[in-house]
Specification:
It comes from Roseateles aquatilis. It holds the Pfam family Peptidase_M16. With 962 residues, this protein is an alpha+beta fold. Among the domains are: 249 residues, Cytochrome Bc1 Complex, Chain A, domain 1 (2-Layer Sandwich); 204 residues, 2-Layer Sandwich (Cytochrome Bc1 Complex, Chain A, domain 1); 219 residues, Cytochrome Bc1 Complex, Chain A, domain 1, CATH 3.30.830.10. Helices cover 40% and strands 19% of the residues. The strands form five sheets. A seven-stranded mixed β-sheet has the order 22-23-21-24-20-25-26, with helices on both faces. It has a six-stranded mixed β-sheet with strand order 3-4-8-5-7-6, with helices on both faces. Strands 14-15-19-16-18-17 form a six-stranded mixed β-sheet, with helices on both faces. The radius of gyration is 28 Å and the shape is globular.
């Protein structure tokens, strides 16, 4: 998502019809009930969701959740099958099947479903696989209820009709690329896999994690796919939740029409697998291509919703639930041994996993860390949590639960989760009641009973050679399917071939942020959103990376990071404890043009949350001891950056494009020398110069009135003194387009190459911004874009590759980014530049234009569906100097884009002759491929972007070759 919303601007129905987004069919017009009302409410002090569960004759379940906060409907279908249902030797099958579900159906050709969703203005379109289930979801404008049911029912009932050896081979390639990206080329990916393999014996369905192994993924045969579909992808093993703005009576009729004719399968046999019992500690040592060592400890714990599950969930918060937790205070804050701590009770149906993960600071001992972890676990097993710790855990859980219901898609998924795991779709009130009923003594007893040293797995990950299984060859994708490869589970019916037309569309309205200015110059932006009792705030100042003084990269980020580390009246730990007690989130950070302090909480706690934010912003202490602690943490973060190929590619790309000395050329963290040189004087000088009310805006979105906000703003920010000196000028020169070149960063043994193909781009506020975004959607911005379709869906080179524009206040960048299989790095770049040339060769046709334009225009309400997104987007728009109506004017601007204007934007802003290719991968394998492209010069740089050596520059003619 690139934009996040804020205000009622309407686009006429006539324009929507012209764009292909709606029809005037009156029979599909939903009767809106109480516009703006939510299905979520509190009854008698208990949280509840108004819903209706219906079961069809074939066993298919649908749960209807009528929620009129936004003109959207979330479609969330769970198939009750995951790795827990996989046969021996077929690890990763459930996840592979998830991918195959998008490969086309009998009535919807391969690749068309995603395009149809784009054209309808769909958002959140994807699928996911967890150990116990697979889900498929998207959100559509509410006038497309029937379209969504047509798509979902055809996926469930007629996907198997179109699966053949070609589509299977393609998705095997895609999934194996996903494994390379998420496991082998991601820091600690093989560490997590090693932990599960130690926890579970051979044959247990959780042993191989969700992704499976290369060998098993590649071994899946077409007959296996068909057998899995016959067993599990049947209406009697699936549940659809519809949540949003629809008429339930109409929805019931349409569900019966589209799903009622599907044939039920045989009853799915229950999975009866005993939870393993460890009677002695297992210790595993793993070396990985990492900079910082990591300790992982894991135990088997009670299954989801079983006795002990809630107790251990609270224990996870007490031990490692953020900065107020025991392990954070001990390991990260006090002793400064750890970079980060994460503790989780991962609740599953066949038994849960309680895990503790600690990333060590550079040079720190895992043995010392493990000893301290053991001490804290032992302490909690003997002494119950304090009343404050229990209150903080419960507040965090309550806020997190309610926040998941803010998006209609999140609401739908939570309902499906409760339906499968608890057997009650409206279990939310009972779920929260579990935590209220748990006592501190029960938490202590659960820890003593479950988290024993002789019943755990300990994984010690250290830097070194990555040891992987033998390489499994990637066979070529067959040119065509063999005869008689397809079969059907359901009889065909002629009416399914016709795509349903949309109903009458509602006027397109976005959240409207109203501005006012306090006497000290602080801008206050109020965006009402009363659907749920939640409020989010973003205090933004024009103090980003572009404000860094020469020679002090990272100072903006360092300053923002220090704001939570103590004020004149609160210590860092008091800030953390107070936020946790409120169930609030409080974060600080810096970007290119701005720094922010953001907070979210329940409405009842928002006044206290905003008071905490105000204190952090206006009264930072910059204590020497805290600076020293944060300095070490930032040095550790620099090491972590070097572990991540996509991050390295981005850092190097910025340095090459912006050039030495430009404030955006350096990483946001800065460099080692700058971090070590930063002291209290530098931080305080930066803060006093840039953190001033006349250069700041407070954006608040949620369940709060304008009068309530004005009163709070006056009270908490009215005394923020405005300096008498003029605000500093922040004019960062835009980069000057240069000649094409190739930059290679060596990452020996990497199974993928991280690519960043970049060039100078437009700054924020250009008149043709909408044209730029529409053309980019077609080129590489959407899943259905030309580049991703060719490299992923046709060639199977990547898990995903996308293009986009970064538009800053004074400069901008265009980039195409993603990771590709090492051996096809050169081929991927050749195909990428062919797609660029194709976009520049001629304007889009009418069908493609309507689809990608609608994907920007009609999707707008779905992109502004949480308070955080609304506040964050308005804050960004203010920081880069955009007018008050920059968000509410989007429908008009997107509606005006034509094939000609989008084509002009392509020709203006995407010049292949000036694009720089940055590749982070195995030099020995990648360099020959890059040299074969004929694109010169070829530079070798280190992970910070410093030049190692370079070949002689080529002639201008060769520089323009792909």
């Amino acid at each position: 998502m690139r934009f996040k919303p804020a205000a009622p601007a309407a686009i006429t129905l006539a324009v929507l019809i012209a764009l292909g987004g709606a029809s005037l069919a009156p029979d599909t017009l939903a009767a809106p009930a109480a516009a703006g009302t939510s299905a979520v409410s509190t009854v008698g002090g208990t949280l509840s969701v108004k819903l209706e569960k219906v079961k069809l004759a074939n066993g298919f379940e649908v749960i209807l959740v009528e929620d009129h906060r936004l003109p959207l409907v979330a479609f969330n279908m769970w198939v009750h099958a995951g790795p827990r249902n996989e046969a021996k030797g077929q690890t990763g099958f459930a996840h592979l099947f998830e991918h195959l579900m998008f490969a086309g159906t009998r009535h919807i050709p391969r690749g068309q479903a995603d395009k149809i969703i784009d054209a309808a203005g769909g958002t959140d379109s994807n699928g996911s696989t967890d150990f116990d289930r697979t889900n498929y979801f998207f959100t559509l404008p509410s006038n497309q209820l029937e379209l969504g049911l047509w798509l979902k029912s055809d996926m469930l009932g007629y996907m198997i009709d179109e699966i053949d050896s070609v589509s299977l081979a393609n998705q095997q390639d895609v999934v194996r690329n996903e494994r390379r990206q998420s496991v082998e080329n991601r820091p600690y990916g093989i560490v997590e896999e090693a932990m599960f393999q130690a926890l579970y014996p051979e044959g247990h369905p959780y042993r191989a994690t969700v992704i499976g192994s290369h060998e098993d993924i590649q071994s899946i045969k077409l007959a296996d796919v068909k057998a899995f579909a016959r067993s599990y992808y049947r209406p009697n093993n699936a549940t659809l939740v519809l949540a949003g703005d629809f008429d339930p009576a109409q929805a019931r009729k349409l569900v019966e029409k589209y799903f009622g004719t599907l044939k039920a399968g045989d009853p799915v046999p229950p999975v009866n697998v005993a939870q393993p019992r460890l009677t002695e500690e297992k210790r595993v040592e793993v070396t990985d291509r990492i900079e910082l060592s990591r300790l992982d400890i894991a135990w088997h714990t009670p299954a989801v919703f079983q006795p002990g599950d809630a107790e251990l969930d609270i224990a996870s918060h007490v031990l490692g639930g953020g900065k107020s937790s025991r392990l954070y205070k001990t390991l990260v804050y006090d002793k400064q041994l750890a970079q980060s701590v994460a503790v989780q009770q991962y609740s599953l149906s066949l038994g849960s996993v309680f895990s503790i993960e600690v990333v060590a600071r550079p040079g720190k001992s895992l043995a010392e860390i493990e000893k301290l972890v053991d001490d804290e676990v032992a302490n909690l097993s003997q002494n119950p949590p304090t009343p404050d710790e229990m209150a903080r855990a419960r507040a965090t859980i309550e806020t997190g639960t309610l926040s998941r219901l803010e998006k209609v898609q999140g609401l739908a998924d939570q309902i499906n989760y409760y339906n499968q795991q608890a057997g009650d779709p409206n279990f939310i009130g009972k779920d929260l009641a579990r935590y209220q009923a748990v006592t501190a003594d029960q938490v202590r007893d659960a820890v003593a009973r479950q988290l024993k040293k002789n019943a755990r797995v300990v994984v010690l990950a250290t830097p070194g050679e990555q040891k992987l299984a033998a390489e499994v060859p990637t066979p070529p994708i067959p040119a065509k399917a063999a005869t008689n490869e397809r079969e059907s589970l359901n009889a065909d019916v002629a009416w399914r071939k016709t795509q349903p037309k949309g109903g009458k569309a509602q006027p397109l309205a976005l959240p409207d942020g109203k501005r006012l200015t306090l006497a000290n110059g602080l801008t206050v932006i109020h965006v009402p959103n009363p659907g749920l009792p939640l409020v989010s705030a973003s205090l933004v100042v024009r103090a980003g990376q572009t404000a860094n003084p020469a020679g002090k990269p990272g100072l903006s980020s360092f300053t923002a990071g220090m704001l939570q580390q103590g004020t004149q009246s609160r210590t860092a730990q008091q800030i953390a404890d107070e936020a946790a007690a409120l169930g609030a989130t409080l974060t600080t950070g810096s970007a290119r043009d701005e720094a922010r302090i953001e907070a979210s909480s329940l409405k009842r706690n928002f006044a206290q949350t905003l008071a905490l934010l105000a204190d952090v912003a206006q009264h930072p202490a910059f204590a020497d001891a805290e600076i020293a602690r944060v300095r070490n943490q930032r040095l550790g973060a620099l090491s972590q950056q070097r572990e991540q190929p996509p991050a390295v590619a981005a850092i190097v790309a910025n340095r090459v494009i912006y050039g030495e000395g430009h404030p955006l050329a350096q990483a946001g963290l800065g460099d080692e020398a700058a971090i070590k040189a930063t002291d209290a004087a530098a931080l305080r000088q930066f803060w006093s110069t840039h953190y001033r009310p006349d250069q700041a805006a407070l954006v608040v979105a949620g369940d709060i009135s304008a009068d309530e906000l004005k009163s709070l703003a006056d009270k908490l920010f009215g005394g923020w003194e405005r300096p008498k000196t003029a605000a500093p000028a922040l004019n960062a020169e835009p980069p000057k387009p240069g000649a094409a070149r190739v930059v290679l960063v060596d990452k020996p043994g990497a199974p993928q190459t991280a690519l960043a193909v970049v060039g100078a781009g437009p700054k924020a506020g250009v008149a043709d911004a909408a044209d730029i975004k529409v053309q980019n959607a077609a080129l590489g911005g959407l899943f259905t874009s030309r580049i991703n379709t060719q490299l992923r869906e046709v060639k199977g080179y990547t898990y995903g590759i996308y293009s986009g524009y970064t538009m800053n206040r004074d400069s901008g960048m265009f980039g195409i980014r993603g990771s590709v299989r090492t051996d096809v790095t050169g081929a991927s770049l050749v195909d990428m530049f062919k797609e660029i040339d194709g976009m520049r060769a001629k304007p889009m046709g009418a069908a493609e234009l309507n689809r990608v334009r609608n994907a920007q225009l009609l999707a707008l309400p779905g992109l502004f569906d949480t308070n955080r997104v609304i506040a964050s987007t308005y804050a960004s728009e203010w920081a880069i100097g955009q007018p008050a109506d920059s968000i509410t004017s989007l429908p008009r601007k997107y509606g005006a884009v034509t094939a000609g204007s989008a084509y002009k934007a392509t020709r203006t802003y995407v010049d292949p002759a000036s694009l720089v290719v940055v590749a982070v991968g195995d030099k020995a394998k990648v360099q020959p491929q890059l040299e074969a492209l004929g694109r010169q010069p070829l530079e070798i740089r280190d992970p910070q972007g410093a030049l190692v050596n370079a070949t002689a520059p080529a002639s201008p003619a060769s520089a323009a070759k792909p």
